[in-house]
Specification:
CATH superfamily: Zinc/RING finger domain, C3HC4 (zinc finger)
Largest sheet: 5 strands, antiparallel
CATH architecture: 2-Layer Sandwich
Organism: Novosphingobium silvae
CATH topology: Herpes Virus-1
Distance between the termini: 31 Å
Order of helices and strands: HEEHEEE
Shape: globular
Protein name: UBP-type domain-containing protein
Strand content: 15-25%
GO molecular function: zinc ion binding
Length: 100
């Protein structure tokens, strides 16, 4: 995890939803999904119209997300603005709907 000082915040989590939690509630769409490795919140990426993963980071200060569209599994630290190696990949809850 070169360049990231937030390794202690990485948890084994249960995904909060089978898609972006907020987009599913509002009927919006997402481009890619991001999983908060602190609490399990599933939000949409910065290329999505609503950028719910970044909004979750801004509200919670949970720094590390996992790319959650299979077969991703990479990590990113919002604070240090670097890719991070995750100790594991979070299993999918089941088929995840895709919009694009």
């Amino acid at each position: 995890m070169t360049g990231c000082s937030h390794r202690s915040t990485i948890n084994t989590v249960m995904p909060s939803a089978k898609g972006c939690e907020e987009c599913l509630e509002t009927g919006s769409y997402w481009v890619h999904l991001r999983l908060c490795r602190s609490c399990g919140h599933v939000g949409c990426c910065d290329d999505s119209p609503n950028r719910h993963a970044r909004a979750h980071f801004a509200a919670s200060h949970h720094p590390i997300i996992e790319g959650y569209d299979p077969p991703e599994g990479w990590g990113w630290c919002y604070v240090d603005d670097v890719e991070v190696d995750l100790p594991d990949r979070t299993p999918q809850l089941g088929p995840i709907p895709r919009f694009f």
